[in-house]
Structure formats: structure tokens, C-alpha cells
Specification:
The protein has 250 residues and is of the alpha/beta class. It contains 9 helices and 7 strands, in the order E-H-E-H-E-H-E-H-E-H-H-E-H-H-H-E. It has one domain: Rossmann fold (3-Layer(aba) Sandwich), CATH 3.40.50.720. A 7-stranded parallel sheet has the order 3-2-1-4-5-6-7, with helices on both faces. It is globular and about 50 Å long.
Length: 250
């Protein structure tokens, strides 16, 4: 059986303390990688408890620190600490994201700006900030979404940001190819994370009826694809968006 072994490699996963990010952190750790995760300031005690639990799970092959993806300065400090603890950075997974769903009529500038800043602009800033630390031959995986392709009701901010991530991924892959860095995106369908479970039950039922596999995704199923993209098996894959959605195309 072919196994993916990432011993001696370091992955940075933004927003990796819960949901898809956490599933990815645990899978990369299982594959032997040093795993570094950041989380935003001002979180609840419950959230901080989950962060501490992840810190304990990762042990001496992990780092869980507060750093805001919207702040270039905080992320630069974060990357410096990762470098000091692990000796290098090989993979970057731009996973951090938020939801502020509203219809166009009800969308406020604050709702729009918060989502676009975190889900799109931060991907640009974090990636640009990471470049001095990212080893040649490394990999970048940007988390997109089925919403960025289909455009769900009430998600103009989220869909615009995720569609932008898909476009940026194509550009980054061209610009970083000379450094041997592959850049791809993963666009999950509805996955039963904390974010997925926040979708109203009636809306989830309507979505489920449109999925050929007749079920929602599990976090580990998305994490498996991210691991593939960071493995030697994906050495000739770059500039792509892998749609992991159970066959749901509207």
C-alpha cells in the first residue's frame, strides 16, 4: 500500500483549529509533518479550549498560536516562529474563512468587507508574506468553495471572495512556477463542519436533494485531497481547482 510520508516537512494551516482546517492539521500530523496553525484574536473560551486541545494533540511536532490572517505583521511574526521551531516551511494551506450571509438587499458594508477581507484579501496577504519562508518545491493550497462556482442565495460576499480565490490560484501558479512551487485550490461542497451545520435545516435538505452521492461531505474527505496536493503524487498538478462536492453541479 502506497503511503504519503511527510516526515521532515512543515505545513502551515490558517484557521486550522476547527472544521476542515483541524481535520487537515490532524491528517498532516498523522503523515509525519510538523503542523503549524494560527487562530484569530478575541475568540470565546470554548474556541480557545479547542485550540488548546489541538496543541496537546500535536505535541512537539506542532505549533498553535494566535495570529490574525488580516494582519501582515502578525503573520510575519507567526512565520518567523514556525521557521524557528521547525527549520523550514514547505506547505501553506490558506483555509481561514468566515460567513456573514445576507441577501443583497440586507447586506451591509461591514458584512461585505469582513468576508472579502478574511476570505480573499487575506489569502493574497498571507501568501505574499509567506514567500520568503516557503521552500522551493513547496505547495500552496487555497480553499475555495462550491459557492464560488454556483453562487448560493444570500452569499454574494462569500461567493465573490471564493471565486476570487479560484482566479488568484491560477495567477499564483504561473508566477511561482519558476520557484518550483505548485499552487492549487480545493472547492468543497457542503461539508458537515461547524460552518456547514449553521446552514438552516430546510436549506440543507434542498441541497442534499441535488447531490448525486446523496450525502454531505466529511471533513476528512476534503483533508485527503489537500494531502494529495501536497504529496509527491501531485508533482505535475498546478493551477487547478479540485471540486470535491459529491457530484453536485446545480
Amino acid at each position: 500500500m502506497l503511503e504519503i510520508n511527510l516526515q521532515g516537512r512543515t505545513v502551515v494551516i490558517t484557521g486550522g483549529t476547527q472544521g476542515l482546517g483541524r481535520a487537515t492539521a490532524e491528517l498532516f500530523h498523522e503523515a509525519g509533518a510538523f503542523v503549524a496553525v494560527n487562530f484569530p484574536p478575541g475568540m470565546s473560551d470554548e474556541f480557545l479550549g479547542r485550540a488548546e486541545d489541538l496543541r496537546l494533540r500535536l505535541g512537539d511536532r506542532g505549533l498553535v498560536l494566535q495570529a490574525d490572517v488580516r494582519s501582515r505583521e502578525q503573520m510575519a511574526q507567526f512565520f518567523t516562529q514556525v521557521q524557528q521551531c521547525s527549520g523550514g516551511i514547505h506547505f501553506l494551506v490558506n483555509n481561514a474563512a468566515i460567513l456573514r450571509d445576507r441577501t443583497l438587499k440586507k447586506m451591509s458594508d461591514e458584512d461585505w468587507d469582513a468576508v472579502v477581507e478574511t476570505n480573499l484579501s487575506a489569502v493574497y496577504r498571507v501568501t505574499q508574506t509567506a514567500l520568503p519562508w516557503l521552500a522551493g518545491g513547496g505547495r500552496i493550497v487555497n480553499m475555495a468553495s462550491i459557492s464560488g462556482v454556483m453562487g448560493f442565495f444570500g452569499q454574494s460576499n462569500y461567493a465573490a471572495a471564493k471565486a476570487g480565490v479560484i482566479g488568484m490560484t491560477k495567477v499564483f501558479s504561473r508566477e511561482l512556477a519558476g520557484r518550483g512551487i505548485n499552487v492549487n485550490a480545493v472547492a468543497p461542497g457542503v461539508v458537515l463542519t461547524e460552518m456547514g451545520k449553521s446552514i438552516p435545516e430546510t436549506a440543507r435538505a434542498q441541497m442534499l436533494a441535488q447531490i448525486p452521492l446523496q450525502r454531505f461531505g466529511e471533513p476528512n474527505e476534503i483533508a485527503n485531497v489537500i494531502l494529495f496536493l501536497c504529496s509527491p503524487l501531485a508533482s505535475y498538478v498546478t493551477g487547478q481547482t479540485l471540486h470535491v462536492n459529491g457530484g453536485w453541479w446545480g
